């Protein structure tokens, strides 16, 4: 009889507010911050400091959960999320649903950008490609190739007609999206370009790298008639050279903005009004620059030149300049030009306590504030700052619900009602069922922890060798005991619950017992500990395990040896040899028969404690094994490792039962509930995950087949890792390719479409034969194919192709053989009778004709079909265009009628009148300053 086991599945993930792999962004209203949290996306209310909604993608059949790597907010309620597998998902913030999934990149999506009208989305990836997506049609338009390294940032210019991209290859590329051509390549940076941005008025483009300066470019926009659009008049470079614009060059170097620190630039962003520029570096600093408008920049340039003229005039009496050479003072009007220093001025800088991962401007500003900034820090914290005229003040922060560092240990209470986690600077108490953070206690660098009996107190071993006793009820650290001379690596409770054992790097194993003391001036007593016995070892102690019957204590040393001592006399019982590297973790089964050890040599070994023999050595993980735990009253073992995996083993049969994937970094700690109904794991990705045991049974053979299928599909999806796959050549300069990519889903859809075409062809032959037999008077009642569900052959094929996602349609049709493509084209004429299918039919026809063009023009049987399609499709497309044009004209007419019935035109006129008055007032002030008589310099009395 084949034995079945119960499956463990992910149930909850908590402890992460924001992860550093992606950027943060505000929504269109400015009331919520969209923050990535590993594979989730949290929608945080800034004022309340609460997570109102969580966007979680559906769990894939195979493979781990995928981290969010980029975010972009539209001007509506949509959020675009890029993931580590290259997919892009469009979410609706109102109901929290995923509207569509776009597959095209082969590696992680690094940047996403919407155009101004949110009709198009551009995505850049680590695969060096840029893909343009039609958001409305939910399909990829085309792929742009040319960069030789990862694409780091993108920005639309010229009303979405052009796209500027930056890359780690040190170049900027300007793409014409109408002709799908790279029209300009801009160099100048000496290191990788990490971020670019354009002000809302599209005057300047700023790029940042590891260079000391931010490079600023003028944007040379052309109108429809070929004339250049107005911009800053009289601009010059930082060297004083006049800018000569070429109509074929969109970007022209304007000058360099000097930064305030030497760290590389991580993000540069303009605010919505364009008067501020934030430069975030790969550190703790954000520099904020003010961006002056045209009039202010001109006034500043005139003041600069006036001061320069006065300075030269002061030296004119001596006839020499500062350099010692005579020089004529030029006319002020001839050199009244604007340089980059006249436009960008350093306003203030803000410093966070931890490294900053990303920055985002709030689209709506509060009163008496120039701008509001949101920062994500590498300690899983969100901070919000208000930018004033000359300073930046911290407004609020969201930090309590998350782990501020790597999770070093997780421990369940005796009744499984509480969960404790330790990290670099805090101890947190959680509700393991809901994932709610109950208590947060400031602590030192905790490495291990345990609950005291009755769950009122907790004991934490720290890196500096102290034991911290924490009162859970009051969330305070009531006592700190100096226990060891070095870090406390392990802490293990005694089976009789009257004490515990600690092991340290100072080569001591110490036994402790609980005591209650009363401090002076206090009525209540509190828990303390005292050392009862010390066992000296030959090397650093890494971990300790005690048998449940309190008969043996096993001590793992740094020299990869495990020593087993008697608990009563502390005499050596046996020494276990076998691991090649240090044993990092171990545990003893509930019956005391088995002990399992995990090592840095990637193996787990199962030992018998009766004679100390090694029952089995298993190559368990592809990296170090960091924790092992037996399920209580069983011989089932969980192991976690630095390879991010959790594995479930049968210690009797020495077989792998399950592999659980979900963490995004090494799994450092593990806790199993008393009943074994769930486990909790902590990781270096700062998350804590709970895995629940379900009622679904599984068999070992089925899991082996699934793992083999996973390996096969992994090779299919990633041809670069497949040594038998065709290696892709380096793309041409500025090449254009298809947007989609081949996946197992597109291949399965192609197979289903081929089957549908075959079934429809057989059904058509049966219908024709039945008609001939009926005409001959020897036919009975026709029995349709039950598989087609009562549909005609044409409708059955249409139903099959309609099930293909819009984004996958191109790749699905590309995999069709030529014979099946001809069959599919024969049904297109029938589908054109449905006005709703005109767009789909036209797209199918274009894809098939472009793919099989050479074969179609040489196949005589295809010529009548192409002639019919040419006439029918042209007529139907024209009718569709006329209908859309009529509807657009009607909507414009309704808009004019609604505008005539409201006071909107008057409001617009009032706003324009206010702008005109303000402009006249500024011009009057400028003229007054220019005509004001200048003060004559005082003549100094020459001394004799």
From TrEMBL:
Q: Which SMART domains match?
A: WD40
WD repeat feature ranges: 79-101, 102-135, 144-185, 186-217, 481-522, 576-617, 618-659, 660-692
**GO CC annotation terms, alphabetical:** Pwp2p-containing subcomplex of 90S preribosome; small-subunit processome
Disordered, as annotated region: 924-944
Q: Name one GO biological process term.
A: maturation of SSU-rRNA
Q: Which CDD domains match?
A: WD40 (cd00200)
One MF annotation (Gene Ontology) recorded for this entry: snoRNA binding
**Domain (Small-subunit processome Utp12): residue spans on this chain:** 794-896
Q: Subcellular location, in the record's words?
A: Nucleus, Nucleolus
What keywords were assigned to this record? Nucleus, Repeat, WD repeat
Major site of localization recorded for this protein: nucleus
Q: Which SUPFAM superfamilies match?
A: Quinoprotein alcohol dehydrogenase-like, WD40 repeat-like
Which family does the entry's similarity section mention? Belongs to the WD repeat WDR3/UTP12 family.
Name of the featured protein: Small-subunit processome Utp12 domain-containing protein
Please give the organism: Kalanchoe fedtschenkoi
């Amino acid at each position: 009889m084949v034995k079945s086991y119960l499956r463990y599945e992910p149930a909850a993930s908590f402890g992460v507010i924001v992860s550093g792999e992606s950027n943060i962004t505000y929504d269109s209203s400015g009331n919520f911050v969209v923050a990535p949290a590993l594979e989730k996306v949290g929608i945080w209310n800034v004022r309340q400091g609460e997570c109102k909604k969580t966007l979680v993608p559906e769990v894939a059949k195979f493979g781990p959960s995928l981290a969010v790597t980029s975010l972009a907010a539209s001007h509506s309620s949509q959020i675009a999320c890029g993931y580590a597998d290259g997919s892009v998902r469009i979410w609706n913030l109102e109901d929290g649903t995923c509207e569509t999934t776009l597959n095209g990149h082969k590696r992680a999506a690094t940047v996403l950008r919407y155009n101004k009208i949110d009709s198009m989305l551009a995505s850049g990836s680590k695969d060096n490609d840029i893909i343009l997506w039609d958001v409305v049609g939910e399909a990829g338009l085309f792929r742009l190739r040319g960069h030789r390294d990862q694409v780091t940032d993108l920005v639309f210019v010229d009303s979405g007609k052009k796209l500027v991209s930056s890359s780690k290859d040190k170049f900027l590329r300007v793409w014409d999206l109408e002709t799908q051509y790279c029209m300009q390549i801009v160099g100048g940076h000496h290191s990788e370009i990490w971020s670019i941005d354009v002000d809302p008025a599209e005057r300047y483009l700023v790029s940042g790298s590891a260079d000391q300066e931010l490079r600023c470019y003028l944007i040379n926009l052309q109108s429809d008639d070929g004339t250049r659009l107005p911009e800053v008049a009289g601009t010059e470079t930082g060297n004083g050279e006049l800018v000569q614009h070429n109509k074929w060059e969109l970007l022209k170097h304007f000058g360099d903005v000097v930064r305030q620190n030497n760290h590389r630039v991580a993000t540069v962003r303009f605010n919505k009004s364009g008067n501020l520029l934030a430069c975030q570096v790969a550190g703790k600093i954000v520099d904020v620059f003010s961006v002056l408008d045209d009039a202010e920049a001109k006034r500043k340039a005139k003041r600069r030149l006036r001061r320069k003229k006065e300075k030269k005039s002061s030296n004119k009496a001596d006839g020499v300049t500062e350099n010692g050479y005579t020089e004529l003072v030029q006319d002020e009007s001839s050199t009244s030009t604007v340089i980059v220093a006249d436009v960008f001025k350093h306003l203030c800088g803000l410093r966070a306590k931890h490294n900053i991962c990303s920055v985002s401007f709030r689209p709506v500003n509060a009163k008496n504030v120039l701008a509001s900034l949101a920062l994500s820090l590498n300690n899983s914290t969100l901070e919000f700052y208000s930018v004033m005229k000359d300073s930046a003040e911290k407004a609020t922060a969201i930090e309590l619900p998350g782990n501020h560092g790597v999770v070093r240990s997780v421990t369940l209470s005796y009744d499984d009602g509480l969960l404790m986690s330790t990290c670099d600077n805090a101890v947190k108490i959680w509700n393991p069922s809901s994932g709610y953070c109950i208590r947060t206690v400031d602590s030192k660098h905790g490495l291990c922890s345990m609950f005291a009996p009755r769950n009122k107190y907790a004991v934490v071993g720290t890196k500096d060798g102290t034991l911290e006793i924490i009162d859970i009820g009051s969330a305070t650290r009531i006592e700190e005991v100096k226990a060891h001379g070095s870090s406390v690596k392990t802490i293990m409770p005694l089976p009789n619950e009257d004490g515990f054992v600690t092991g340290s790097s100072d080569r001591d194993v110490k036994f402790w017992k609980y005591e209650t003391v009363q401090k002076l001036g206090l009525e209540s007593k509190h828990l303390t500990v005292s050392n009862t016995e010390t066992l000296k070892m030959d090397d650093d102690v890494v971990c300790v395990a005690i048998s449940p019957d309190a008969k043996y204590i096993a001590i793992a040393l740094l020299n990869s040896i495990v020593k087993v001592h008697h608990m009563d006399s502390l005499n050596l019982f046996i020494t276990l040899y076998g691991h090649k590297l240090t044993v990092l973790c171990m545990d003893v089964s509930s019956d005391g028969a088995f002990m399992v050890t995990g090592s840095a040599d990637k193996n787990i070994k199962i030992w018998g404690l009766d004679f100390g023999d090694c029952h089995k050595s298993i190559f368990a993980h592809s990296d170090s094994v960091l924790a092992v735990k037996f399920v209580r009253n069983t011989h089932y073992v969980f192991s976690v490792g630095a390879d991010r995996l959790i594995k479930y083993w049968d210690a009797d049969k020495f077989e792998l039962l399950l592999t659980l994937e979900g963490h995004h970094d090494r799994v450092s700690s593990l806790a199993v509930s008393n009943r074994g109904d769930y486990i909790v794991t902590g990781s270096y990705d700062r998350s804590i995950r709970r895995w629940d045991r379900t009622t679904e049974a599984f068999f070992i053979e089925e899991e082996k087949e699934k793992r083999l299928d996973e390996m096969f599909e992994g090779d299919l999806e990633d041809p670069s890792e497949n040594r038998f796959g065709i290696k892709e050549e380096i793309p041409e300069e500025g090449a254009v390719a298809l947007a989609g990519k081949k996946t197992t889903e597109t291949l399965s859809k192609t197979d289903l479409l081929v089957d549908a075409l075959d079934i429809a062809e057989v059904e058509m032959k049966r219908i024709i034969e039945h008609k001939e037999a009926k005409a001959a008077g020897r036919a009975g009642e026709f029995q349709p194919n039950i598989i087609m569900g009562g549909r005609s052959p044409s409708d059955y094929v249409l139903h099959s192709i309609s099930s293909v996602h819009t984004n996958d349609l191109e790749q699905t049709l590309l995999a069709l053989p030529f014979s099946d493509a001809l069959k599919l084209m024969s049904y297109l004429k029938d589908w054109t009778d449905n006005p709703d299918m005109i767009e789909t039919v036209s797209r199918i026809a274009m894809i098939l004709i472009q793919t099989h063009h050479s074969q179609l023009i040489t196949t005589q049987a295809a010529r009548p079909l192409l002639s019919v399609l040419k006439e029918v499709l042209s007529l139907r497309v024209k009718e569709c265009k006329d209908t859309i044009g009529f509807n657009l004209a009607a909507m414009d007419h309704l808009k004019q009628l609604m505008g005539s019935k409201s006071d909107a035109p008057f409001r617009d006129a009032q706003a324009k009148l206010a702008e005109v008055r303000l402009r006249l007032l500024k011009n009057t002030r400028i003229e007054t300053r220019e005509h004001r008589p200048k003060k004559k310099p005082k003549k100094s009395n020459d001394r004799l």
